[in-house]
Design a protein that fits this description.
By secondary structure, this protein is of the alpha/beta class. It has one domain: Aldolase class I (TIM Barrel, Alpha-Beta Barrel). The protein contains 7 helices and 9 strands; from the N terminus they run αβββαβαββαβαβαβα. The protein has helices at about 5-10, 65-75, 95-100, 135-140, 155-160, 180-195, 205, and strands at about 15-25, 35-40, 65, 80-85, 105-110, 125, 145-150, 170-175, 195-200. α2 (about 65-75) runs parallel beside α3 (about 95-100). The longest helix has 14 residues, at about 180-195. The chain starts with a helix and ends with a helix. The structure holds S-adenosylmethionine (SAM), ligand 2KA, iron/sulfur cluster (SF4) and magnesium ion. S-adenosylmethionine binds near residues 111 and 146. Homodimer. Its EC number is 4.3.99.3. Belongs to the radical SAM superfamily. 7-carboxy-7-deazaguanine synthase family.
Length: about 210
Amino acid sequence: MTRSERQELLDKGLLLPLMEEFYTIQGEGFHKGTAAYFVRIGGCDVGCHWCDVKESWLPELHPATETIKIAENAAKYSKTIVVTGGEPLMWNMDPLTKELKERGLQVHIETSGAYKLTGTWDWICLSPKKNKLPTDEVYAQAHELKCIIYNKDDFRFAQEQAAKVNKDCILYLQPEWSKKDKVVPEIVDFVMANPQWKVSLQTHKYLNIP
Ligand SMILES: C[S@@+](CC[C@H](N)C(=O)[O-])C[C@H]1O[C@@H](n2cnc3c(N)ncnc32)[C@H](O)[C@@H]1O
Ligand SMILES: Nc1nc2[nH]cc(C(=O)O)c2c(=O)[nH]1
Ligand code: SF4
Ligand SMILES: [Mg+2]
C-alpha cells in the first residue's frame, strides 16, 4: 500500500490507529461496574495537561489497523464496546460503529466532543475541555456529561457546559486523579448543594485494573 492509499483509508475510517484494546470493567460515569471491551484509538490534539493517556496523542505511533478486524476481534470479548482514545472523533467513526452494530453490540464512546460527531452510538459520554469546546451536535446527543475537576474554575466551567447539553443528559463531576485528595471534598459539597449533579470516580484505578 502506498502512503497516499493508506491515508485515504484512514480518512474514510476504514483504517484506524489502534493504540490498545482490553477487556475490563467500565470504571467511570453511568456505566461504571459494567464489563466492557475498550478500543483505544490514537490521536488527540486537545492537549489536557493532566491527561492520563498522553501516549495516545501522536497517531503515527499507533498501527493503522483494519476497522473490520477491530470489530471482529472486539465481538469475541463483550456485548459492550467502549471506543475511547485519544480523541476518537478525530476519525470517521461510521465504519467502526457500523461493523460493531452489525454484530449486535452496544457501542459507547468517550469523547471531548471537539470534532464532528460521526458513528452510531448507544451511549455518548461527553467530557468537554476548555481548550477545544464541543460541537453543538454532541451537546444535543450526549447521554452523560462528565466534567473533570482539577481546580475551582472547573466548577464554573461544568455549570456552563451543563447549560448546553440536552435535558436528559446525566451530569457528573469527576476528580482529576492527581488532585483528588484536594478536590473530592469540594466536589462532595458541590453535589450536596447542587443535587442535579452526581459524583463519578475513576473506580478502575482503585481496583488496579486497566
Ligand atoms: C483519556 S480520555 C479519552 C477520550 C476523550 N479524549 C475525552 O477526553 O473524553 C477518557 C476520559 O478520561 C478522562 N480523564 C483523562 N485524564 C484524566 C485524569 N487525569 N483524571 C480524571 N479523568 C481523566 C477524560 O476527561 C475522559 O472523560
Ligand atoms: N476501566 C476503565 N474505564 C474507563 N472509562 C473511561 C476510560 C477511558 O480511558 O476512556 C477508562 C479506562 O481507561 N479504563
Ligand atoms: S481530550 Fe481526552 S485524550 Fe485528549 S488530552 Fe484531553 S483527556 Fe487526553
Ligand atoms: Mg482511562
